[in-house]
């Protein structure tokens, strides 16, 4: 157990100007250079944001700081003392805590158990639960968090889980907090709450490293911003000196494609519609209840909603993965009884929620991945036409700017953004009539996001109908021609993106209006 | 909250006792709650209980253990060998070591080499079965009373004792009164049954049984009250999270599987040392798998596993001691299903209503029409009871989230 000695050395060197000082960090993985000569200085009790495209090397850098990876060269200095972390526990001992993008919590264990795990107060190996409870309560109060410590994690909402993660890190005595994409899963109101907590933390003397690619949030919360591009630091700026556009340019390294007003008109023909669509929940409430909507030719309809309000089940129902009541029509024809294959043949395409779970075979090569769903068109009889499949994959790589050495590497070597470009490309390459795009740009950087948006817009202008499911309000507002809000399995509002704001959407999404 | 929970438990236990007491008086089948039946039931409960606890330790640390049956076979063989050579206590130790060996094999295969956990378990079962047959060929063939499928009988047995004052145990040579035995003989409503049941649990007890039952609270305490236990459970719930906090998941999975194997070995040892006095091929008779079933029934909790194992032990005990009483047991099942039926109707759970109703009708009809139960049916009864209870006791099962999923430390996730 890490005791007071590490702590006292920290207080001794408290005068050191920089809490964290990374100098000339380089790290490469087979075939990829993740970090190249990165230097970074973080001042005490500030919020320091690190922004960059996905695959720019932010996460790798933070994993090096947290001891999950070891740098090939370069040094890490904490409170002015050069250190090497061979494992997370050494980083924890030095006062560094990390809140991961994907929560690292055990669903069946209680809040208290999750918080103390790995740093348990014990007496002869027996847990001192009363003592632990008291300390966690104190911590929670100090940053303004109220939690029932005896609930299992599975009963908490996303925002609460994130609080547990933060408490977990603080419980270990962390004075340097690394937050990896903390707002990716939150609705605007929850983001405000989080920021309030973070400001209290900083006031208590904690230093926060904030990784994000949501530029507005970065600008509003941080004291310093370091921009990373393609593995190297571009510059460190103060949020007062830059605006959103400038920051985005630093990140991408070139002028951003503008949003662009649409020049074409929404068509007359209904391409996808549902009538009183209900997905039956077996032992629970119906996840989708009485949903009716129409999408016209050349139209993007955005579905905004907090994850878990039936969007996933709605997509499954449209694809034919679950039993439904009510009807689904594709291209004006009743598709309720059709199999998945038949629906795809009617011109349906699907960009799935989770590219790792539903979109890709991570261990398979890119060309095999791009072949998925198109086996019939890229084969000769029962045999796959290798040359045609590889050629089609190369076309996708070129057209969508997938950064990869070639089409033969396995999918897991690509960064998240490039994986997503491949998935999007696979579905747009065949010019489908209807595209269901679920979180098409989740967890990918601004550059890749702009590319994906541009491609979706272009296909829309060419006549494609799009059902866009997203929790990213900027995306929903920027891309949609019409917005539906889904709350608790039902469509709770229909809005015009021109007049809607994130705040209005947030209210409908959380059922407060 | 806990107080009202305890109160509910107390009331439902009393209600079950009242029902079975009524059935006993009505049918004059005293064997339903006689100390004989309960004592036998307890002896039959022990190996299943230990097998269930073995499953618990393995799955709580994140590894499925289909190989419990095989580890029990190791336990029976090595236990019998140790008891034959050095006496019963050494025998139990050897049984545990035999099981630990099985657990170690499973750990090396699944944790070190990432072999599929189910396949490894099945292989251990096969390997144990044929491996001990080979050992018997080497060691037992040609010895007095031994052969390829059984060991020579052991000379000593484990000591047994009665609880003083309550069940007529001895205090320094003085034979104390057998109060519970007297109470049982009175055959009073509820009190008589209470006497029989308590005497069955305290009379002619083997020390091995006491140890086995103590495994339950000991496991619960270690798993939920110690640092080791919390870390072990976290390895089964979310190894990625545990690793990120510096918990050495794979080490804990080794420990979990060694403990699991040791308990399975002890389960085998009780079969070849306590329940009998020699090793016999096929002695485990699928109890490892029944243990796994009680683990699921018990919702991966020690107390639940204890209840599941007792239920099974009781059904099997009554079959052995008094097959006449089986017909009375039908009545008991009918009465219990009736209660379940009422509860299910109140809660409007369709599946539960259907299951409880059919169990009620079947057992009622069986009681009215069946005078003698065919041998094969009495054999199947314990399994049948388990099945019915599993189906009616609808609960929110909470298996360890990552049990069965291999974990490779340090990989990107």
Adjacency order of strands in the biggest sheet of chain A: 6-9-10-3-11-12
Strand percent estimate of chain B:
under 5%
CATH class of the largest domain in chain B: Mainly Alpha
CATH architecture type of the largest domain in chain B: Orthogonal Bundle
Kindly, what is the distance between the CA atoms of the first and last residues of chain A, rounded to a whole number of angstroms? 49 Å
Query: What is the number of helices of chain A?
Result: 18
Output the strand order for the largest sheet of chain B: 1-4
Give, in order, the helices and strands of chain B: HHHHHEEEHHEHHHHHHHHH
Helix count, DSSP H or I runs of 4 or more residues of chain B: 16
Name the CATH superfamily assignment of the largest domain in chain B. ABC transporter involved in vitamin B12 uptake, BtuC
Q: How would you concisely characterize the structure shown here?
A:
With 513 residues, chain A is α/β, with parallel strands linked by helices. Helix content of chain A is 34%, strand content 26%.
Structure keywords:
heterodimer; A: 513 residues; alpha/beta; Rossmann fold; 6-stranded mixed beta sheet; 24 strands; 26% strand; globular; disordered N terminus; B: 413 residues; mainly alpha; ABC transporter involved in vitamin B12 uptake, BtuC; 2 domains; two-stranded antiparallel ribbon; 16 helices; 4 strands
């Amino acid at each position: 157990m890490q005791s007071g000695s590490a702590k006292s050395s920290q207080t001794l060197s408290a005068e050191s100007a920089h809490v964290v000082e990374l100098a000339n960090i380089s790290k490469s993985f087979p075939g990829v250079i993740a970090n190249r000569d990165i230097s970074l200085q973080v001042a005490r009790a500030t919020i320091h944001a690190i922004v960059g495209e996905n695959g720019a090397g932010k996460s790798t850098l933070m994993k090096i700081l947290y001891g999950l990876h070891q740098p090939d060269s370069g040094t890490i200095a904490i409170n002015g003392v050069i250190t090497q972390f061979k494992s997370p526990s050494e980083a924890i001992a030095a006062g560094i805590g990390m809140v991961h993008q994907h929560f690292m919590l055990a669903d069946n264990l209680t809040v208290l158990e999750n918080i103390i795990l790995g740093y348990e107060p014990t007496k002869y190996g027996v847990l001192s639960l009363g003592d632990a409870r008291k300390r966690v309560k104190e911590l929670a109060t100090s940053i303004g968090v109220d939690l029932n410590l005896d609930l299992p994690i599975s009963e908490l909402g996303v925002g609460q889980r994130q609080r547990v993660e933060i408490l977990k890190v603080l419980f270990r005595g962390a004075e340097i907090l690394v937050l990896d994409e903390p707002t990716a899963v939150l609705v605007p109101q929850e983001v405000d709450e989080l920021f309030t907590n973070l400001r209290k933390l900083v006031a208590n003397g904690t230093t926060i490293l904030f990784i994000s690619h949501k530029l507005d949030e970065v600008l509003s919360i941080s004291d310093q911003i370091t921009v990373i591009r393609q593995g190297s630091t571009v510059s460190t700026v103060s949020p007062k000196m830059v605006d959103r556009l400038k920051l985005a340019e630093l990140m991408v390294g070139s002028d951003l494609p503008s949003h662009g007003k649409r020049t074409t008109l929404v068509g007359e023909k209904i391409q996808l519609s549902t009538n009183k669509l209900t997905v039956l929940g077996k032992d629970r409430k119906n996840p989708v209840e009485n949903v009716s909507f129409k999408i016209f030719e050349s139209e993007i309809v955005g579905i905004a909603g907090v994850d878990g309000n039936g969007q996933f089940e709605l997509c499954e129902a449209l694809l034919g993965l679950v039993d439904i009541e009510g009807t689904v029509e594709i291209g004006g024809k009743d598709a309720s009884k059709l199999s998945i294959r038949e629906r795809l043949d009617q011109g349906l395409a699907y960009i799935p929620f989770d590219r790792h779970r539903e979109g890709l075979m991570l261990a398979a090569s890119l060309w095999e991945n791009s072949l998925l769903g198109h086996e019939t068109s890229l084969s000769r009889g029962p045999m796959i036409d290798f040359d045609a499949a590889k050629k089609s994959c190369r076309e996708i790589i070129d057209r969508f700017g997938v950064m990869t050495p070639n089409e033969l590497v396995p999918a897991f070597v690509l960064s998240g953004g490039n994986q997503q470009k491949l998935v999007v490309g696979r579905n747009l390459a065949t010019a489908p009539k209807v595209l269901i795009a679920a979180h098409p740009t989740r967890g990918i950087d601004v550059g890749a996001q702009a590319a994906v948006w541009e491609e979706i817009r272009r296909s829309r202008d060419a006549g494609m109908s799009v059902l866009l499911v997203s929790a990213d309000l900027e995306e929903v507002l920027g891309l949609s021609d019409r917005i539906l809000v889904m709350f608790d399995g039902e469509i709770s509002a229909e809005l015009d993106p021109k007049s809607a704001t994130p705040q209005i959407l947030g209210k409908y999404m959380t059922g407060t209006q | 909250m806990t107080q009202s929970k305890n109160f509910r438990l107390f009331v439902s236990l009393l209600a079950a006792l009242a029902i079975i007491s009524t059935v006993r008086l009505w049918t004059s089948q005293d064997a339903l709650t006689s100390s004989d039946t309960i004592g036998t039931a307890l002896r039959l409960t022990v190996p299943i209980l230990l097998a269930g606890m073995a499953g618990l330790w393995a799955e709580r640390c994140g590894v499925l253990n289909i190989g419990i049956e095989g580890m029990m076979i190791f336990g029976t063989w090595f236990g019998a060998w140790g008891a034959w050579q050095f006496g019963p206590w050494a025998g139990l130790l050897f049984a545990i070591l035999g099981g630990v060996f099985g657990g170690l094999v499973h750990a090396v295969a699944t944790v070190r080499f990432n072999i599929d956990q189910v396949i490894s378990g099945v292989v251990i079962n096969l390997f144990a079965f044929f491996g001990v047959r080979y050992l018997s060929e080497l060691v037992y063939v040609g010895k007095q009373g031994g052969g390829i499928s059984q060991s020579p009988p052991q000379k000593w047995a484990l000591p047994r004792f009665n609880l003083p004052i309550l069940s007529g145990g001895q205090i320094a040579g003085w034979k104390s009164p057998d109060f519970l035995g007297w109470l049982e003989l009175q055959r009073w409503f509820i009190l008589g049954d209470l006497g029989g049941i308590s005497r069955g649990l305290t009379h002619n007890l083997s020390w091995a049984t006491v140890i086995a039952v103590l495994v339950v609270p000991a496991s619960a305490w270690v798993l939920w009250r110690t640092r080791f236990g919390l870390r072990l459970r976290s390895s089964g719930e979310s190894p990625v999270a545990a690793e990120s906090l510096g918990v050495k998941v794979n080490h804990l999975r080794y420990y979990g599987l060694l403990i699991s194997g040791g308990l399975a070995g002890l389960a085998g040892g009780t079969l070849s040392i306590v329940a009998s006095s020699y090793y016999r091929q096929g002695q485990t008779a699928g109890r490892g798998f029944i243990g796994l079933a009680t683990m699921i029934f018990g919702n991966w909790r020690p107390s639940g596993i204890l209840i599941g194992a007792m239920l099974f032990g009781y059904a099997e005990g009554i079959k052995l001691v008094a097959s006449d009483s089986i017909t009375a047991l039908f009545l008991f099942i009918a009465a219990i299903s009736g209660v379940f039926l009422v509860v299910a109707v109140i809660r409007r759970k369709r599946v539960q209503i259907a299951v409880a109703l059919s169990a009620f009708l079947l057992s009622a009809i069986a009681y009215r029409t069946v005078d003698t139960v065919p041998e094969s049916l009495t054999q199947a009864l314990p399994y049948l009871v388990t099945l019915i209870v599993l189906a009616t006791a609808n609960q929110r099962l909470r298996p360890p989230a990552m049990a069965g999923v291999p974990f490779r430390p340090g990989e990107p996730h």
